[in-house]
C-alpha cells in the first residue's frame, strides 16, 4: 500500500512539474513574426577612413577612435574586434555598425560614434543592396546621426512611444554584432530614465538585451514591433556584453531627427548652471524634508541663470512645471526646450520655496570655458562648487569651496572626501571656485603644498601634491 501511495505521489508531482513547464513555455513571447516584419528595415553600416596608422602592441588595436579599456562607460564603435593592423603610412579601415530606415525616401538613423570621422559611409540592406550614404547631420550630445541614401519605396520601421516603457517589459534588438548581420537578441527593460556620467541630455533605457560591438545604432523593439530605442552604450569591464546595455529613447531620437532634417543640426536651450544631487545629509543641512531637486553649485557668468537671479546654493525643485527628483533630470528638461522660452523655476532658498522666472537662451558655440573646467577637474581629480550659505552657517565657515565629487586621481591620493571644504591652498585664502581654480593651476606637479580643509566642522591641514 505504501509503495502504491509513493508511486502515485511521484506521478502527481511529475505531472504538476510538466504542466508548470508547459504553461511557462507558453507564456514566453514568440519573436519570429516580429523579426520577419522588422528585419528588412534594419541596415548594416560600414565606413572608410583615410588614416595614418602604426603598429600596435601585439599587432592589435581596438578600433577607430577607441578609448582606454578602463573607461567606465564605453561607447562601442562597431568595428570588427581586434583586427590586425599592419604598420604603414596610409590605410583604409572600416567600422561596422547598425542602423534602421525611418522613411521610405531613404533617411537612415544610427549612432554618431558609428560614422564619426568617416570619409565614406556604406549602407547595406537585408536584400544585399548597397548604397553610399550622405551625412545629413549629427548630434554628439545624444550620439545620433541621420543619413540619406538615394532610394525610394524602402521598408521602414514603426516608431513607438518610449515614454510608455516599464521595467520588466520584453524588448528585442536586431543588429550586426561583430559583423554577424541581422542577429536577434532579446531581454527585458531593466530600468528607464538612466542618467550616465557622459550623457546629461539622454534619459537612457537600460536593458539586459545582449548588445556587443556592431549593435551600435541598431533598433530596440517592443513586442508590438515598434522601435522604442536606439542601442548606444554598454557597461563593461572586459569590452564585451555584461548584461547592462543602454538605448536612446525613441522620443528623444525622433526629436533630434526632425531638427536634423530641417536644419542639419540640433539647437538646445541653455540655463548655465553646474548642479549636483541632493544627498540625505545635504537635504538635512538645508532644511529639506527629503532629498530631491538639483542643487546649484555654480552659476556660469552671463548665463540665463545669472540674468534670472539664480544663485549658488539654490535647489531647483521643479522646472517648467516638471518635478526634479534627481539632478540628472534637469539637463534633459532644459535640452528639450528652445532658446527664448520663458519658464518658471521653483527653487528652495534660505529655508523657503520661491518661483523665479527664467528666459532660456541658445547654448553658446564656444565651449572653451567648459572644456577648461573639465581639464581642471581631471587634473585635480575632483569637482568643487561654491560654498552653500546654509553649510557655511551650520559649520561657522567664512570662506572656501566644497568638494562635490571625488573623481579619483590626485584628490583620492591626498585623502580628500566629498563634503570637505577647502578654505586655503598654498598659503592663499580661497573665496570662490575661480580662486581655487587659479590657485590650483599655479601649483607645480610633484610638489607638496599646504591645504586647509574643514571636514564635518573640524579644520585640518594636509599636504596636497598633484601627481601626473
Written overview of the protein:
It catalyses: Acts on substrates that are at least partially unfolded. The cleavage site P1 residue is normally between a pair of hydrophobic residues, such as Val-|-Val. It comes from Marinomonas vulgaris. Its EC number is 3.4.21.107. The protein is α+β, with helices and mostly antiparallel strands. The protein folds into three domains: 30-266, Thrombin, subunit H (Beta Barrel), CATH 2.40.10; 269-362, Roll (Pdz3 Domain), CATH 2.30.42; 368-464, Pdz3 Domain. It is built from eleven helices and 29 strands. It has helices at 2-27, 32-38, 112-115, 250-263, 280-286, 304-308, 329-335, 368-380, 389-394, 409-413, 433-441, and strands at residues 42-51, 73-75, 91-101, 107-110, 120-124, 130-132, 134-139, 144-148, 158-159, 170-175, 183-196, 199-207, 219-221, 226-235, 245-249, 269-270, 273-277, 294-299, 315-319, 322-323, 342-349, 352-359, 361-362, 382-386, 401-406, 421-425, 428-429, 449-455, 458-464. The radius of gyration is 27 Å and the shape is elongated.
Chain-wise SSE layout:
Layout: H1 2-27, H2 32-38, E1 42-51, E2 73-75, E3 91-101, E4 107-110, H3 112-115, E5 120-124, E6 130-132, E7 134-139, E8 144-148, E9 158-159, E10 170-175, E11 183-196, E12 199-207, E13 219-221, E14 226-235, E15 245-249, H4 250-263, E16 269-270, E17 273-277, H5 280-286, E18 294-299, H6 304-308, E19 315-319, E20 322-323, H7 329-335, E21 342-349, E22 352-359, E23 361-362, H8 368-380, E24 382-386, H9 389-394, E25 401-406, H10 409-413, E26 421-425, E27 428-429, H11 433-441, E28 449-455, E29 458-464
Parallel strand pairs: 9-14
Antiparallel strand pairs: 1-3, 1-5, 2-14, 3-4, 4-8, 5-6, 7-8, 10-11, 10-13, 11-12, 12-15, 13-14, 14-15, 16-23, 17-18, 18-19, 19-20, 19-21, 21-22, 24-25, 25-26, 26-27, 26-28, 28-29
Amino acid at each position: 500500500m505504501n509503495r502504491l501511495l509513493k508511486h502515485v505521489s511521484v506521478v502527481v508531482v511529475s505531472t504538476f512539474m510538466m504542466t508548470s513547464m508547459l504553461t511557462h513555455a507558453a507564456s514566453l513571447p514568440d519573436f519570429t513574426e516580429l523579426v520577419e516584419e522588422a528585419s528588412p528595415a534594419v541596415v548594416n553600416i560600414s565606413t572608410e577612413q583615410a588614416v595614418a596608422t602604426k603598429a600596435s602592441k601585439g599587432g592589435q588595436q581596438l578600433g577607430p577612435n577607441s578609448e582606454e579599456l578602463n573607461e567606465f562607460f564605453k561607447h562601442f564603435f562597431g568595428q570588427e574586434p581586434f583586427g590586425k593592423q599592419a604598420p604603414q603610412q596610409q590605410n583604409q579601415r572600416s567600422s561596422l555598425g547598425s542602423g534602421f530606415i525611418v522613411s521610405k525616401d531613404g533617411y537612415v538613423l544610427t549612432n554618431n560614434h558609428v560614422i564619426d570621422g568617416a570619409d565614406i559611409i556604406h549602407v547595406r540592406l537585408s536584400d544585399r543592396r548597397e548604397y553610399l550614404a550622405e551625412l545629413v547631420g549629427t548630434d554628439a550630445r545624444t550620439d545620433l546621426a541621420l543619413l540619406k541614401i538615394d532610394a525610394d519605396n524602402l521598408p521602414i520601421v514603426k516608431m513607438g512611444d518610449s515614454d510608455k516603457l516599464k521595467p520588466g517589459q520584453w524588448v528585442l534588438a536586431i543588429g550586426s554584432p561583430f559583423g554577424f548581420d541581422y542577429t536577434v537578441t532579446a531581454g527585458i527593460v531593466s530600468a528607464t530614465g538612466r542618467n550616465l556620467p557622459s550623457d546629461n541630455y539622454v534619459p537612457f533605457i537600460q536593458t539586459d538585451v545582449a548588445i556587443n560591438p556592431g549593435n551600435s545604432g541598431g533598433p530596440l523593439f517592443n513586442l508590438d514591433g515598434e522601435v522604442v530605442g536606439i542601442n548606444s552604450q554598454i557597461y563593461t569591464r572586459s569590452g564585451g556584453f555584461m548584461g547592462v546595455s543602454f538605448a536612446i529613447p525613441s522620443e528623444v531620437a525622433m526629436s533630434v531627427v526632425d531638427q536634423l532634417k530641417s536644419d542639419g543640426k540640433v539647437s538646445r536651450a541653455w540655463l548655465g548652471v553646474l548642479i549636483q544631487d541632493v544627498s540625505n545629509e545635504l537635504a538635512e543641512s538645508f532644511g529639506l524634508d527629503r532629498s530631491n531637486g538639483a542643487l546649484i553649485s555654480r552659476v556660469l557668468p552671463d548665463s540665463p541663470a545669472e540674468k534670472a537671479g539664480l544663485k549658488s546654493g539654490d535647489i531647483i525643485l521643479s522646472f517648467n512645471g516638471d518635478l526634479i527628483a534627481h539632478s540628472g533630470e534637469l539637463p534633459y528638461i532644459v535640452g528639450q526646450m528652445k532658446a527664448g522660452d520663458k519658464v518658471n523655476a521653483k527653487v528652495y532658498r534660505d529655508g523657503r520655496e520661491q518661483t523665479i522666472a527664467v528666459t532660456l537662451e541658445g547654448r553658446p558655440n564656444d565651449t572653451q570655458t567648459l572644456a577648461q573646467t573639465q581639464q581642471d577637474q581631471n587634473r585635480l581629480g575632483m569637482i568643487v562648487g561654491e560654498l552653500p550659505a546654509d553649510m557655511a552657517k551650520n559649520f561657522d565657515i567664512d570662506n572656501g569651496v566644497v568638494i562635490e565629487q571625488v573623481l579619483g586621481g590626485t584628490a583620492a591620493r591626498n585623502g580628500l572626501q566629498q563634503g570637505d571644504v577647502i578654505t586655503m591652498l598654498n598659503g592663499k585664502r580661497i573665496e570662490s571656485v575661480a580662486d581655487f581654480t587659479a590657485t590650483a593651476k599655479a601649483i607645480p606637479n610633484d610638489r607638496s603644498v599646504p591645504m586647509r580643509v574643514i571636514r564635518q566642522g573640524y579644520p585640518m591641514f594636509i599636504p596636497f601634491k598633484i601627481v601626473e
